[in-house]
Amino acid sequence: MIPYGKHSIDDSDIASVIDVLKHQFLTQGTMVPKFEQALCDYTKALYAVAVNSATSGLHIACLALGVGPGDLVWTVPNSFVASANCARYCGADVDFVDIDPSTHNLDIAALANKLGDASHKGRLPKVLIVVHFAGLSCDMQAIRELTAPYSILLIEDAAHGLGGRYQNKKIGSCQYADLCVLSFHPVKSITTAEGGAVLTNSAVYHQQCQLLAKHGTTRDPALMQGDSEGPWYYQQVVLGYNYRLSDVHAALGLSQLSKLDAFITARQKLALRYREALADLPLRLPDAQSYQGSAWHLFMVELTQHARADVYAALHQRGVGVNVHYIPIHLQPYYQRLGFKQGDFPVAEHFYQNALTLPLYPELSEDEQSYVIKMLHEILR
Ligand SMILES: *Cc1c(COP(=O)(O)O)cnc(C)c1O
């Protein structure tokens, strides 16, 4: 079975991990700070906090922005559930903004409308979490311009976005966002097995995230109440979590990061080939113009004449492990119990009905891709 996504691990990655296992601290050694610095060097964000998943990162990003009970957080329905759950962890309410039918990112016009309504009703969100769907950056400048008059804070869920670009800067630069969260799950741009990071240009949010990811404890006398009692001393100053990334994982991340641009180039080449080879099939392909800076996390097509379940089954029968992204979050039973229902966000729902994610990862061979293309022609013709 050709999977829809897969990590690329080579001998240098394996050697980096073995080196930590043999010679260094397994956690809280030098690899995590090195990895954090490398993430800053790559994205040009000023600060990075490595964490054990993007889900943890989204949680502490919300907490760092002061999200709590009674607050409202907006995100998009076509994402992984973690994009919304983070607000629920903080006791906040969640609402969604529908997506643009062509980019599948947050719909700017829908956002403008919803902000107008919310402002009238006096129920504006504290935070908006945007998702760079499939690796394509949202229009962050437009989103910042719309939300700034209401002092709404912005988190980028960039789990799909590492290696992509927006306005000629790397996704993660935080030019138009308060915080940006990355994932290093094996199907994402680079992997640490499990892992993630929070990026920011704010010293205050950085300090908050560091505390929250480490039990709320600090050894920095400047952050303590009263004086340090000696070199052994630490204080817990807020309620935090153990969301640390280990040095073993960070070593893998550091090694992977050195290959990120090569991974993205490989993804771009494969995406271009799909676009050309599938052009005359009854499919809607990703819009070439808007996808220029994409990290190409996913290559998604929309079926226009066939039932998705049939095509999915036919491809799986032929060894092509296509997938579907995503079941709209608001239609999950947990969110339906909070009052959401079918019809609330029609564009995301319609996209979900027809969407199919084709295999795309750096090590997908030309022969494998040719096979996927051939099977699509066979089934859709
Ligand atoms: C993968 C993913 C997450 C969660 O990442 P983890 O590192 O597995 O916690 C969050 N948001 C989006 C959009 C994702 O694709």
How many distinct beta strands?
A: 14
Q: Taking all residues together, what is the mean pLDDT?
A: 97
Structural class: alpha/beta
Using the CA coordinates, give the radius of gyration: 21 Å
Quick one: CATH class of the largest domain?
Alpha Beta
- How much β-strand is present in the residues? 5-15%
Biggest sheet overview: 7 strands, mixed
Bound molecules: pyridoxal-5'-phosphate
Ends distance:
22 Å
Strand order of the largest sheet: 1-9-8-5-4-2-3
Inertia-based shape: globular
CATH superfamily of the largest domain: Type I PLP-dependent aspartate aminotransferase-like (Major domain)
By DSSP (H or I, 4+ residues per run), the number of helices equals 13
Instruction: Report the order of strands and helices.
Output: HHEHEHEHEHEEEEEHEEHHEEHHHEH
Proportion of helical residues: 25-40%
Taken together, the total number of domains comes to 2
- In the predicted model, the low-confidence regions spanning at least 5 consecutive residues are none
Examine the coordinates and then state which fold CATH places here, giving the name of the CATH topology of the largest domain.
Answer: Aspartate Aminotransferase, domain 2
State the CATH architecture of the largest domain.
3-Layer(aba) Sandwich
